[in-house]
Specification:
Length: 447
């Protein structure tokens, strides 16, 4: 029997399986919060575009610099006169009657010109201001990139630590499920001995199922949170992301200070507006200098040949034309365009100054609000933690009473409900405290 066919099929199957395994290969990322931020700085689309804007500005600056450098250009022209131009010569030169003209063709059929041209700006106020503004333009684009990075960083901090806290939520749910499963077992034993009703067993079973459903919903929300964080980081969805940092109540509280001193310059958005203002000032100077004359140097060196046959590489003379000139352009009247540009740039500067003043007010308000929210969130988190611990104690005591027959099923169900409520309130307070913490650090420029 021919074995080639089956062997070939087996080989193709192995190759296909290897290809599928390679396609499914994922990368594992174990990140601290700082590593996550660094990864986003390299991979987040918005950050990458902001950094590209810096490179674009650098190339724009090179273009501005070119305006102050000499420029050379070469020319090559060949003309074939199908009909050589005709000129009229007074006939009296050749003895004809006055008032008559004789048509004469001057020139050759083929003409060629090869030349070099030089142009150099000697003085142009607008060009010089453009050169002065280059560094500020780069700084502004760089600061804009930092503002974009900070916005992405803020969201990364919030999502990262919420996902870290979600581990605590799952641990609490697992503890509740274990606790209820034990209660379910004990209730069934009591029911077998005739000291409980079937209804009591069913109630506990329902509670176990509800908690397992709640856990599944929480796991689903956590998975969605990881997808959102990967999107913020610019990470492929198929990659595995593991969060290494932990956060505790003590850590959250440690970031809060009652010190009201903060500096506007710690805020990147404030520094960005300061650079915008400086560029507005450069614009005013540039348009004011447009009233001054401009001075340019230019030079030309040409070689010209004339032939009746198309043979410029053969014998024959090439005639030279060259000159150097200086052009002074004195603006006299431009229809008030320059005046409009100066006034417009002054108004734009006023707009920026208003934006800066308004940003100061916004920062003051943001800091105070963030401080109040953070302080309130810490207090709520502390109270809810104490309440959760108390609810756990109440539940354990109620369960002991139930096990020895001095407590009712109603009491233990109520204690279990109170405990779950207290736990959910604590997790919610912990999430809120994390958000308040990040907003506070961002508001004071310390994130």
């Amino acid at each position: 029997m021919n074995q080639t066919g089956p062997r070939l099929m087996l080989l193709l199957l192995l190759v296909a399986m290897a290809g599928a395994a390679g396609a499914q290969k994922t990368t594992r990322h174990d990140f601290t919060i700082q590593q996550a931020v660094d990864y986003a700085r390299q991979n987040n689309a918005q950050v990458k575009n902001a950094l590209l804007a810096v490179q674009i500005q650098k190339e724009t600056n090179r273009e501005i610099t070119a305006g102050a450098l000499p420029s050379f250009s070469g020319t090559l022209g060949i003309t074939d006169y199908i009909d050589i131009p005709t000129s009229l010569i007074p006939g009296e030169i050749f003895g004809a009657p006055p008032g008559t003209y004789i048509p004469v063709k001057f020139g050759t059929k083929y003409n060629s010109t090869v030349g070099l041209q030089l142009q150099q700006v000697l003085f142009d106020g607008q060009v010089f201001i453009g050169l002065q503004a280059r560094a500020t333009s780069i700084d502004m684009q760089s600061k804009n990139a930092e503002v974009t990075e900070e916005a992405i960083k803020t969201n990364i901090y919030k999502v990262y630590y919420q996902l870290v806290v979600s581990k605590t939520q799952i641990e609490i749910l697992n503890a509740n499920i274990d606790r209820l499963q034990k209660l379910d077992h004990d209730t069934r034993e009591i029911y077998k001995n005739g000291f409980a009703e079937k209804l009591d067993v069913d109630k506990v079973s329902v509670q176990v199922t509800n908690l397992q459903t709640e856990k599944q919903k929480a796991l689903n929300n956590i998975a969605i949170g990881y997808l959102g964080l990967k999107t913020l980081l610019g990470m492929p969805v198929k990659d595995t992301l593991v969060l290494l940092d932990k956060i505790s109540d003590a850590q959250i509280a440690a970031d809060f200070t009652n010190d009201t001193a903060y500096s506007y310059t710690d805020r990147k958005d404030f520094e960005y507006l300061g650079l915008v203002k400086r560029l507005n000032e450069y614009n005013i100077k540039r348009y004011k200098l447009s009233y001054l004359p401009t001075l340019n140097l230019n030079g030309v060196y040409n070689k010209n040949a004339q032939r009746n046959q198309f043979d410029f590489l053969g014998a024959g003379d090439w005639f030279t034309t060259s000159y150097i000139g200086i052009n002074l352009n004195v603006p006299i009247f431009s229809g008030f365009a320059k005046n409009a540009r100066v006034k417009r740039s002054k108004l734009e500067l006023q707009q920026t100054e208003i934006q800066i003043d308004n940003l100061k007010l916004s920062i003051d308000n943001e800091v105070e609000q963030a401080k109040l929210n953070f302080k309130s969130a810490q207090s709520t988190m502390s109270y809810q933690k104490q309440n959760m611990q108390l609810a756990e104690t109440v539940y354990e005591q109620t369960k002991k009473k139930y096990e020895v027959g001095t407590g009712s099923n109603i009491e233990i169900n109520a204690a279990q409900t109170d405990l779950i409520t207290a736990q959910n309130n604590y997790i919610s307070a912990l999430y809120s405290a994390i958000i308040a913490r990040v907003d506070y650090l961002k508001a004071i420029g310390k994130l």
